[in-house]
Design goal:
With 89 residues, the protein is mainly alpha-helical. It has one domain (2-81). Helix content is 87%, strand content 0%. The protein has helices spanning 2-15, 17-27, 32-83. Helix 1 (2-15) runs antiparallel to helix 3. The longest helix has 52 residues, at 32-83.
Length: 89
Amino acid sequence: MLWLATGLTLVVLAAWPALLARISSALGIISPPNALFVVALGFFLAVMLHFSLVISRLSEHTSRLAQRLALLEERVGPMKRDDGGEPPE
C-alpha cells in the first residue's frame, strides 16, 4: 500500500508542473525537477524504513516459532521412543 501511495504521489507531481513548482519554491529548491527527486527520495526512505520494521518483526516472529517448535519436539520425543514410531500428524 505504501508503494502505491508513493507511486501515485510521484505521478501527480510529475503530471502537474504548477504543483511541483509551488512545492519546490516552498522547499527553497530552484529547479522543480530537483524537487521531484527530493520528494521521491523522501518517499523511498519511508518505504525502506517500513520494510526494515517489517523484516525485524518477522525475524522476531521466526525466532519465537523456532523456540516453540523446539519445545514441542522435546515434549513429543519421549512419545516417539515409547511408541517406536512417528507420532500421528
